[in-house]
Every structure is written in structure tokens, then in C-alpha cells.
């Protein structure tokens, strides 16, 4: 089973504190680890290039 990883830093996602949501532009799943969420590290959608904090 493949491990889910953060879209921003590629770290494996923990069971608590991580989140997953659809890209606001294209809907592909964006995954964020606790650290990147708390520090507002930018992410870029791998499909459409949309970026956010």
C-alpha cells in the first residue's frame, strides 16, 4: 500500500494533523502535513499548477 505524502514537502502524512482537499482550480487531491499547514508553506497543484498557502 503506497504511503500518502505531503504535496509541499513530500513527507509521509501522519494520521493526526494532516489534511486532504481538492484543488480549488481542477479538483485533484492536495495533501498537507501538519508542519506545512501550521507554517503556511506554499503548495503547487501537480496537475494544473495552482498555488496556495
Notes on the structure:
There is one protein chain. The protein has one domain (1-53). The chain is globular and about 25 Å long. The model has no long low-confidence stretch (mean pLDDT 93). A hairpin with a 6-residue loop joins strand 3 (43-44) and strand 4 (51-52). The chain is mainly β. The chain has one helix at 34-38, and strands at 19-22, 29-32, 43-44, 51-52. The chain has one helix and four strands, in the order ββαββ. Strands 1-2 form a two-stranded antiparallel sheet. Strands 3-4 form a two-stranded antiparallel ribbon.
Topology summary:
Blueprint: E1 19-22, E2 29-32, H1 34-38, E3 43-44, E4 51-52
Antiparallel strand pairs: 1-2, 3-4
Outline, from the CA principal axes? globular
Query: What's the total count of β strands?
Result: 4
Topology as a string of helices (H) and strands (E): EEHEE
For the biggest sheet, the summary is: 2 strands, antiparallel
Number of domains: 1
Global mean pLDDT: 93
Query: Structural class from helices and strands?
Result: mainly beta
| Estimated share of beta-strand residues | 15-25%
Strand order of the largest sheet: 1-2
Helicity level, as a percent range? under 10%
Distance between the termini: 29 Å
Low-confidence stretches: none
Radius of gyration: 10 Å
Q: Given the structure, what is the number of helices?
A: 1
Amino acid at each position: 500500500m503506497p504511503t500518502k505524502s505531503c504535496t509541499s514537502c513530500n513527507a509521509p502524512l501522519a494520521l493526526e494533523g494532516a489534511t486532504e482537499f481538492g484543488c480549488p482550480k481542477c479538483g485533484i487531491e492536495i495533501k498537507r502535513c501538519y508542519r506545512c499547514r501550521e507554517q503556511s508553506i506554499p503548495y503547487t497543484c501537480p496537475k494544473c499548477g495552482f498555488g496556495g498557502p
